[in-house]
Design goal:
By secondary structure, the chain is an alpha+beta fold. Among the domains are: about 110 residues, Four Helix Bundle (Hemerythrin (Met), subunit A), CATH 1.20.120; about 90 residues, Signal transduction histidine kinase, dimerisation/phosphotransfer (DHp) domain (Helix Hairpins, Orthogonal Bundle); about 160 residues, Heat Shock Protein 90 (2-Layer Sandwich), CATH 3.30.565.10. It has 14 helices and seven strands. The strands form two sheets. It has a five-stranded mixed beta sheet with strand order 2-4-5-7-6, covered by helices on one side. A hairpin with a 3-residue loop joins strand 4 and strand 5. The longest helix is centred in the first third of the chain and has 68 residues.
Length: about 500
């Protein structure tokens, strides 16, 4: 009555029941292992099938017994009709012969046939369950007694052949009624078997609901077993992407909790190592920048002849020192930026990104470098939206485009295309540079590795940025590979093709 008067309480009750059931199932799941859960699931799945199998076997056994009984009765009735026809025919024949020949031996034969008929009737009556059939047998026996008394009386000597045959007419009539009743009983038993078969068939068909119930039970246990494993997989993927901040604390079977504890220990160690690495890079970079600044300032003073003129050899040595110091300065700055990019906690957010706009922004950033080489950009401007990290993708595209510009010849072209499938989106950046040897396609992603620099390139590298690109793509569950352009596009006889693959997580696109 209270729940009807208070709608809020009536709505809250199912939620409380659902929450209570969830908490109960969760606590129960935490107490058992995957092995026990699998065994319980197998038992619950097998139980309805076993019950259906036992039911079918029982019904099949009943049908077999009924069929056996029916076959026996049919054979018995068929044999009875045959015996009765034969015995009654012999009985009439011996009686007719006695009336004609008046031989006592023929009367004895008649008596033997009459006794045989009596035995057949008594034996059949004891085995038959049909009341009408029994009544017909009783009438047949009474009629046979009447004929016997007639044959043993003195009046039989005055009977003619036609008269004695007339006396057998009622006996033959009862025999015909017996045959008709036997046929009816046989047909009835056939119909009973047919009806029983239909009932069993319908019962088995009705119990087909066990199949969806079994599938439902199997589905529930599959979810109970795989859901904790899926959560484990998600946590492992986060670790693979370099996310060490989120604590790993999972509920579920004992095995899952053990793996989760091991992963949590590994996460803590990896997080500590990541912090130590970042701290070490920052510390060593700043420590190197201080003496390097002094060396650079001193070298500039010497190079500007502030402390006196230099001869040619001294000037050459000073130039070498200046170039080396500048390169070392750039390496330290790239190392710091490398550490900042990979250590930034802001890189894990997902945004809705227009891929065409992101590529356009990356091209605008490198506009001066493109103009200096008079390069032609061919971009796929089809609108396409994905959910990813815009800052990471910007860094990735900027570095790949920078590499393409660096190795492209003057007046060359760079082609940027992208396509999608259900599983992934693929971005191809193709240049017309010297390309890359297959043996170096993986080595270029090693930290500080630098290939052969192109002639008169204004873009200098430290060998770190492709390493950063690969690391960022790993965090995005993506991949990168570099191949010869002719393997991707028949229009390019030379050059390199950088293929970026990202998981397709967009919700709407117009590609």
């Amino acid at each position: 009555m209270t729940s009807l008067n208070n709608p809020k309480k009536s709505k809250r009750l199912p939620r409380q029941l659902t929450l209570s059931f969830f908490n109960f199932s969760q606590s129960l799941l935490n107490k058992i292992s995957i092995k026990k859960l699998t065994l319980i699931g197998f038992t619950f799945v097998a139980m309805p099938l076993v019950m259906a199998l036992l039911f079918g076997a029982n019904k099949a056994s009943e049908l077999a017994k009924q069929s056996t009984t029916a076959i026996y009765n049919v054979a018995q009735l068929t044999q009875l009709n045959s015996k009765l026809d034969d015995t009654i025919a012999k009985l009439e024949r011996s009686a007719s012969q006695f009336v004609v020949l008046k031989d006592d031996e023929l009367l004895a034969v008649f008596s033997r046939h009459q006794k045989t008929l009596k035995d057949i009737i008594q034996e059949t009556s004891a085995k038959q369950q049909d009341k009408v059939l029994k009544e017909r047998l009783t009438s047949l026996q009474a009629e046979s007694y009447r004929i016997k008394e007639l044959m043993l009386s003195d009046d039989v000597s005055a009977f003619s052949l036609e008269q004695i045959q007339q006396e057998f007419k009622p006996l033959q009539l009862i025999n015909e009624q017996l045959e008709k009743r036997s046929a009816f009983v046989v047909n009835q038993q056939v119909l009973d078997i047919q009806h029983t078969t239909e009932e069993i068939s319908n019962s088995i068909l009705e119990r087909l609901y066990i199949i969806p119930i079994t599938l439902l039970i199997a589905g529930v246990f599959i979810i109970l077993i795989t859901k904790p494993l899926k959560r484990l997989t998600d946590k492992i993927q986060l670790l693979e992407q370099g996310s060490f901040e989120q604590e790993i604390n999972l509920h579920g079977p004992a095995e899952v909790r053990e793996i989760a504890d091991a992963l949590e220990n590994m996460r803590q160690r990896l997080h500590a190592l990541e912090l130590q690495k970042s701290s070490f890079i920052r510390h060593i970079s700043h420590e190197l920048k201080t003496p390097l600044a002094a060396i650079r300032e001193g070298t500039e003073l010497i190079y500007d002849n502030s402390v006196g003129p230099l001869n040619e050899d001294q000037q050459e040595i000073c130039d070498i020192i200046r170039v080396s110091v500048n390169r070392l300065q750039r390496l330290i700055e790239d190392l710091l930026e490398f550490n900042i990019v990979l250590d930034s906690t802001s890189l894990y957010g997902l945004d809705k990104i227009s891929l065409s706009e992101l590529i356009s922004d990356a091209c605008n950033v490198r506009k001066l470098d493109i103009k200096s080489k008079n390069l032609t950009l061919k971009c796929n401007n089809s609108p396409y939206f994905i959910y990813s990290n815009s800052k990471q993708l910007s860094v990735i595209l900027d570095n790949i485009l920078s590499n393409a510009i660096k190795y492209s010849p003057v007046n060359g072209s760079i082609t940027i295309t992208y396509s999608s499938s259900k599983e992934c989106i693929t971005i191809n950046i193709i240049d017309q540079g010297p390309g890359i040897e297959p043996s170096l396609s993986e080595k270029v992603f090693d930290a500080f590795y630098q290939g052969k620099a192109p002639i008169n390139s204004q873009i200098k590298g430290s060998g770190l940025w492709l390493t950063i690109v690969k690391e960022l793509l790993l965090r995005l569950n993506g991949n990168i590979k570099i191949t010869q352009a002719k393997k991707i596009s028949a229009a390019n006889e030379s050059g390199a093709c950088v293929t970026i693959t990202l998981p397709n997580t967009q919700t709407d696109n117009e590609l």
